[in-house]
């Protein structure tokens, strides 16, 4: 029985590794989900790796579900070609709910983001924010973020502290991100005492 469990575990690990491999050889960084293989990797990251192995209830990390078909998604690939993270987005103009009325999202929204524990603290999520906020700035639009966790809020604080140009662009949003369902993230951080100080200094990590 013990040997059978070990063999099954090894086979499962090998299968996970194969499913998380980038067969399109796109290189390290964030890339759009474009194939069934990408969708399988996205599902595995959200449901099994995050949901069963790396989610921390102590850090108030929420349960995540695979996105509905209408959502956009990105995979984060490491240098060795393995998927180590993912993000899902609601797009401006996308229906709030399929076949449930005409209401649409008012801005692009970063709905979920997950990076594996071993791949964190290397600037990958900051790079994603830079990419999305930069695209919004070029189009004269805003970027929403759904229910940021405490860790994500600290990262947003660090991102905005060094990028004044993005402070008017990022909003914490609910529902369709209409004018009554959005709060400017930087203004909220300042009001909470976690934003820029009176001399313009970036906040310290201990102020989170």
Automatic annotation (TrEMBL):
InterPro entries, A to Z: FAM169
The protein, known as: Protein FAM169B
